[in-house]
Amino acid sequence: MxxxxxxSPRLGDPWSAxxxxxxxxxxxSPRREYTQSNGTPKTVSWAPAISSNQNMNGPSSSWSGRSDxxxxxxxxxxxxxxxxxxxxxxxxxxxxxxxxxGRWVPANGSLRGNLLSMCGRIxxxxxxxxxxxxAFLFAIFLFYVTPLHHLYRSxxxxxxGSKFVIILAANQGGGVMEWKGxxxxxxxxxxxxxKRKYVKKWGYNLEIVDMTTKKRYAxxxxxxxxxxxxxxxxxxxxxxxxxxxxxDLHTFIMEPSYSLQSHIFNHLKEVTYRxxxxxxxxxxxxxxxxxxxxxxxxxxxxxxxxxSINLIVPQDCGGFNLGSFFVRRxxxxxxLLDIWWDPAGYEQKHMEWEHKEQDALEYLYKxxxxxxxxxxxIPQRMINSFPPGAxxxxxxxxxxxxxxxxxxxxxxxxxxEWGRDCWGEMYRYRELSNHLNRTWWEKFKDALSERWKLxxxxxxxx
Length: 462
Fold this sequence. Notes:
Layout: E1 31-35, E2 41-45, H1 46-57, H2 61-80, H3 94-98, H4 111-125, H5 127-144, H6 148-154, E3 164-170, H7 182-202, E4 205-210, H8 227-237, E5 243-247, E6 251-253, H9 260-263, H10 268-271, E7 311-316, E8 319-320, E9 324-328, H11 331-340, H12 343-349, H13 357-367, E10 375-378, H14 380-383, E11 410-412, H15 422-436, H16 440-461
Parallel strand pairs: 3-4, 3-5, 7-10
Antiparallel strand pairs: 1-2, 5-9, 6-11, 7-8, 7-9
């Protein structure tokens, strides 16, 4: 009984099985030349290997049977054992590696080649970790360097920045007054730069309004009365915004790392109060002293819900302060702004209202009961801290003046144009803000500089 040959890698050319006559094979053994790592060619042939194997094993059939039995038994054992590989790539390339093929070998064992080979082996072993780290770094770069960071924070359904608009008064003293000098321009430049940096970080909108002193309206001259009108214009310009934050020119945001959401609006009920009796420098009677008003208007705290707050105002030593305050878009706000801007009220009372819109709002709060349930007050130092020169004789200065240790949010140099140095105060607080908000690298460099100064002083003394 003839023993047919097993399939050969070459078509139509079977390998000769054990005991078959190789000389009668229909084809020749497949041959192929390969190049070794040293560059010399090497010929691989199966026929000599098979002959050598037959000569070593011999033709004994009894031993062949026993060998087949033990071979099958050992194969079962070896197949049941776990297999290990040095490399995670391919299981069938052992011969290729032995023949010097498949891996790059540095020519002449050069230092550059050895380094590249070592780096390649390390990257192959750690390629998954390397890809993860690289993807993480790329994501950080994509989020913080590209506009994606700004888009995320400004989106109303993500960061919520588009819900807030900062309205900044600018060009005060320009127009017909023409008294602006280099210091005034420097104050305006620093104030605008400060607000632009803040809105860029958090995705808010910034509306810079021109407060030039000029006659805007044919029937009257309302110099410094433009706040109400500019707020209404901003509401029309930003129809999707919810809160509008008015800031005077002489304000400076000391802590740009505070977002409005985390600082105020995420816990609005906790940081505001509606009962003006908690701090009442104007001695306003509250609740409203009239028996005919509704229960809501006559209550101390309104309905107690933060959703019903439409106006947030700080109070200084003299009463309401509109250098920094918030207005919410609502029907109530539209009604308030219309009455606040009423020309009839202006004509009758503007000579009595020394602080213009501020005194007008105080008058409305005292005499209009419907305003109180939707008006909330906020501690002054949360959005409107004063420098020591403002309200200097106030007995409760700790509630009014800026405290560096507490990292107050905003400083308002209110009244600095009346006997104080506006530019000096702006410069001082700008440098203090830069110092307090240094990066870790800037702090490290400053620490080294201070250390070096101490060493130089010690050498000079010795």
